[in-house]
Design a protein that fits this description.
- The protein is of the alpha/beta class.
- The protein contains two helices and five strands, in the order βββαβαβ.
- The longest helix has 12 residues.
């Protein structure tokens, strides 16, 4: 009987240490998803790989306060804070959703000193598809 030979070499998907801190990102994309209940900010590089993210919930807000403009501003500050040492200067902004945090998030991004190439509204609009839910009562 012959013994099976163990495979020697690197696995295809193995990660040897994190490269996130080493990566220099001159330009990126900031995705802001603003719903009525929460605001999620995701920062990616140009290829779409996530660099950092934050939400109103991870910024310490709970319940109905997560949907406020101030919570969206805090989420933007937490998401962009790590990007200064990675060298990101230019960014594109994609804003999605009907929430209150849309304008506050955009103002917070501008206040951080990021140069914006463009700002695009990517809120999905149906071409008369499904019947929408009833309108919110305020």
């Amino acid at each position: 009987m012959t013994k099976p030979i163990a495979k020697i070499g690197l696995r295809k998907n193995a990660r040897i240490g994190s490269k996130k801190s080493e990566r220099r990102i001159p330009k990126g994309v900031i995705h802001v998803q603003a719903s009525f209940n929460n605001t999620i900010v995701t920062v990616t590089d140009v290829r779409g790989r996530v660099v950092s993210w934050a939400s109103a919930g991870t910024s310490g807000f709970r319940g109905t306060r997560k949907g406020t403009p101030y919570a969206a501003q805090a989420a933007v500050f937490n998401a962009i804070r790590t990007l200064a040492d990675q060298g990101m200067q230019r960014a594109e902004v994609m804003i999605k959703g009907p929430g209150l945090g849309r304008d506050a998030a955009l103002r917070a991004i501008r206040r951080n000193g990021m140069l914006l190439s463009f700002v695009r509204d990517v809120t999905p609009m149906p071409h008369n598809g499904c019947r929408p839910p009833k309108k919110r009562r305020v």
